[in-house]
Structures are given as structure tokens and as C-alpha cells.
Amino acid sequence: MGQAASDGPVVVGVQAGQVRDVVTVAAQIAERFSVPLVCVTVDPALLSAGNRADGSEIIEPIDPDSADARPTDLPDADRAVIDQIAAVHSAEVTVLTKVGDPGRALAAVAEEHDALMIVVGTQTGRRRITEFFNGLVAARLAHQQHRPVLVVPVDPVGFDDPLPWDAS
């Protein structure tokens, strides 16, 4: 296989409880191209309101009645899974927590790190409806930024089963 277009990392979008399949695929790619892995979790309940003079980010809740402006990090169990998978694939890994729109956050991290590609998983369960109404993260990434996007099926349905947005 030829040289990668970038020596930048594989950026992977991760969600609590849904890391194993997506991170495994991303780590295999990172190993294949000898690049690091940057796992990004995004808290969509918070927004970035810019930066302070010292460079730190100003984070505000979307809900004005919420006083909590701390982003939700991945649970320790998910972080342990990421570290285990990265070790198996000899991939250097960084885990970042971002806020706001997941597609924009992933695209920004990918741009900042000159990523080789972005890897995301499909949504599962109740998240599918939210994904449908908010716009598929993968579809938005494929149309609104220039890096390759790989979508990993997390909970696929059969060809004879209704698609998540067709189920009632």
C-alpha cells in the first residue's frame, strides 16, 4: 500500500457505551498507517462560547436552567476499553472531550490534527431517532469537510428489517 495522504492521526468519534467496535476499526487503521489515534467524545448539551484571554474555553449549557457547564467525559470503563484496544494495535491514543455539535467538533479536531480520516459509528437504540432529526453525523461530515469518513456499523439490522427511521 502507498503512502498515506497525511501522517496525521485517525480521529474517531466515540460515545459512552459504544466504543469497542468503532475504536477497534479505527485502531486497525491507525496501526496499518503507523499513525496515532485521537478519540473524541462530544457533549452536545454544552456549547463553546469562545475563549478567555488565557486561552481556556468558555463553555455554556444549552439549557439556560442548567448550572452545569462541565462536559461529560467518557466513563472509566470505556476509557479502559480504548486503552486496551490501542495497546493491542500498538497505537498511541489521546482521548479528548469536546462540546457542541458532534459533526463540527469532530471536523475541528480532524483539521487541527491534520487527520488521515474520521471514523464514526452508527447510532443505536433511542439515539437513532435523535440522529435522524439532528442529521446523521457521518453524512454531515461527508458533505461539510474534506477528509475521508468511515462509518462503522454498530447495531446493524438485516435487509428485511425496517430501517431505524422507518420503525414505528
From TrEMBL:
Ranges of residues in domain UspA:
10-153
Question: Which Pfam families does its entry note?
Answer: Usp
Protein name per Swiss-Prot or TrEMBL:
Universal stress protein
State the organism of origin: Curtobacterium pusillum
